[in-house]
Write a structure and sequence with these properties.
Order of helices and strands: EEHHEEHEHEEHEEEEEHEEHEE
Oligomer: single chain
Number of strands: 16
Strand order of the largest sheet: 14-13-15-16
Distance between the termini: 113 Å
Strand content: 25-35%
Helix content: 10-25%
Number of helices: 7
Structural class: alpha+beta
Shape: elongated
Radius of gyration: 40 Å
Length: 340
Amino acid sequence: MGQHIQRPDGKMAGSIGDGRSGAPTAQPGVPTSTAGAASAPSLTAALTALTPTSASPAPQLLVPDAHASWGMDIDDLCLACGRDISEWSAGHAGALERTIVGARMPDPALRVFNGYDIGARTKITGRVCATCLPSVDTAAGQPVADDRAIEQIDVGDDCVYCGTDTSPGSSSYVNRIPAGTSGQDMDGAQLRAFSQYAIGAHTRVEGHACPGCMTRDCDRCGHPIAMDEDVYGDNGDNCCLSCVTAQELVNRRVEDGQIDPAPAVTVRLTSIYDGDEVTATITLPGPADGVSVEDWFEDTVYPLTGTGRASGTYEESGYFAEITDAEDPALTGQESSWGV
């Protein structure tokens, strides 16, 4: 039933919205016209015009980069929800400092901070309330949405794999190398190290790699191998110096041309650590023409001694080498020692 309207003479003049009112009733001295009624918008049309449709564009929450601030500090309001976390507020307890890039800011927070000129790359420093901390820290280990991510970022002297500073003067500067990766290849820890950047799955990240991130695990013992200290075993294992055999070292150095070709000799190596004796027998090219036995022992055999144990760990240590078999009889029995 629609809303009824009463005329001045007390009679009912139909209703609005009940579907039963017809054309207006003619009254003496009052001209009848339907033109005005036809041109006036209906109530339904007016409400429809005011109601947003699914096709309506979503409000712009992030300011375009050209107009956005590069960084800002926000005090006393949670960066994730806008809640009051000032010193005497209920939200102060448990709030922790965080830096959030605009692309990682939740939509409710962007609405609260509307007018702050926050763009996808804007770095906002402040605090996050205890309620929002878990979700903020979880999101920091995930790539941002593609529509908010940047295409490429250069992190400069930071290691692209762990975020370690590799700048000149740092402990990681020596042996650093240029390196790059992409957001889809970064794990949660790596993304958290660079959570101040709008890194998406397809973002290219350029910078450096620190020596620690260039290590690989030994296939035989599982321990990390320091950079440039890995050797491939005869079976293809990537080995540390403690696990590779002396013969495998010989084979790799012959292959690499580090040992000059010559008739083979057999050498017994003995390493002594505080009375603990370790022996190995290897076959390798003997002294080449024009190379003295002493120089051959020093340049070719000495690098093959030892077992990869850390120096300085033992009070007494020594290395011995003796040629036990050779095509040239004059070489058999020749020996040398180091560290004794």
